[in-house]
Fold this protein.
Amino acid sequence: MHWMEVTVESSVLTSFYNAEDESNLLLPKLPTLPKNYSNTSKIFSEENSDEIIKLLGDVRLNILVLGGSSGFIELYAYGMFKIARVTGIAGTCLALCLSSDLKSLSVVTEVSSSGASEVSYFQLETNLLYSFLPEVTRMARKFTHISALLQYINLSLTCMCEAWEEILMQMDSRLTKFVQEKNTTTSVQDEFMHLLLWGKASAELQTLLMNQLTVKGLKKLGQSIESSYSSIQKLVISHLQSGSESLLYHLSELKGMASWKQKYEPLGLDAAGIEDAITAVGSFILKANELLQVIDSSMKNFKAFFRWLYVAMLRMTEDHVLPELNKMTQKDITFVAEFLTEHFNEAPDLYNRKGKYFNVERVGQYLKDEDDDLVSPPNKEGNQWYDFLQKSSHLKESPLLFPYYPRKSLHFVKRRMEKIIDQCLQKPADVIGKSMNQAICIPLYRDTRSEDSTRRLFKFPFLWNNKTSNLHYLLFTILEDSLYKMCILRRHTDISQSVSNGLIAIKFGSFTYATTEKVRRSIYSCLDAQFYDDETVTVVLKDTVGREGRDRLLVQLPLSLVYNSEDSADYQFTGTYSTRLDEQCSAIPTRTMHFEKHWRLLESMKAQYVAGNGFRKVSCVLSSNLRHVRVFEMDIDDEWELDESSDEEEAASDKPVKIKEEVLSESEAENPPSGAAALAPEIVIKVEKLDPELDS
């Protein structure tokens, strides 16, 4: 994984960075999602909305690069939307680095065969990204907006589904049970119609209403339906519609960009595909409007129906009926009669599909994430516009009209919309990915070490991009005479340019103690190394002849000493990059380094891995058993001298070690008690300051 920010500057980019996003002027601000729904909606909640805006407001292009063992590398603009997919990567991706000038992508891969693995370095040309950077940036901004809006719509729909309660299905299930248990031949619709017209219910209907539904249950059901429907209605109006309209706006802008073929066609932006996406969003908006109509109609119908049924049930129990409830006009009676006629039809075929004979509740079917058709699609009879369209062959096929799916749920239309948008935005990723050609391949070494999970997480090689000098650096080790020798390979980000001292090996010679001026000479093997900043590499060494507990060193290696301009001609690689480098060790120039400062002895710790961050001025060292971490503050003084006595003097004296915090002793960390292996490993942290003033 590698995340980079583009540093290239141009007048076109500067004007784009400084220009205000028109969508902020033309579109209303998206309402934050309510907190009382699922945790996922908190992404767009009140406290997080500023973070989303900040993310979308970051106009300078930054790209997340991902690689693995699946044979491809993917690039995500702003970490959110895929803008390139590079295929045909052999083996497992160990390291990757996209240069900040967007001219090349460095990749290190490992191909395993017959118990060993071969590690190679590749450099891919990314000239299309570099040449069309302003266009890529604009396109990526649109893609990110669209991606965020799709997520917003998805979460709005999730909130709507949560607002719809299972209690609303009570009426359907109770009526189905009533049909299964009743002995009379009259239909449920006739039973309720008889109660409406004559005010009397059959004994069976009375048992259903008084014993199963109950007056209290009916009241609760009515309140649940009103509360649930009004919540869904608000979410559709304020969130789903505003999100969809914003999506339509950004897709329309993207279509305008695609029409500028000279600029955007090379990037794979397809106007026809975007038109299909716009049409799909239009269909989704139509379906959302249809749901609003169904909710509005259902709320009126249920209100009138429950009011009438509540009064009828109070009369059955001979309770007092309030005068205002008792009033019922002819219009109210007609309204309830139409509701009974439309909603209380028995459907035996529905029983085979849904296990019920009725579908009185019509809103839930729109929120079901199913491919099935709607159980009760809206009635189109008498719809003048629909009839007009059906009779007009020209309008029926017109691209100006959004297609309508009367028998499908809102979830189905949303999934279809997402699929079409994904297809339309996938093409640039394929086109940009195919444009990235392999320009350089350097086989590095053959690795016969065991493939345990620890090495997979932390092992060499390590890639770094120097943004100032536009160079790719690669740190790796080569096994020579049972020692791991650190090598530094560097290439120019512009593949057409060469660089001097392209490959050099580092040998660590001696380390001088600051106060005693005693020199520590030994044979050192490189365990791990990472770039601390553009000028420095942090290295963990093992003294192969030192005694345990005093055999690990932390070293800051300045590159200015490695690449010394005075004698650079003496350190030129004389071999060939077409042959594996570990087979031509003698041809790799080796520079022996001697340190009087910028090093430290790591006592009582089997240090194995290191991570450095020059921006935060911190380095972390991790032990070989992954149980112990030491954190070093690196920027205490320019003179990073470490006052260490010789091994014998240090052992004899009992000087305190410069440690600010210790959670667990080294002996406990390195030698866990019996049975500890079965437990999850604890991480033990020490914080140390490298401060000369603490030296005695």
Summary: The chain is about 40% helix and 25% strand. Residues 200 and 565 are 106 Å apart (CA to CA). Residues 638-681, 691-696 have pLDDT under 50 and may be disordered. The longest helix spans residues 271-316.
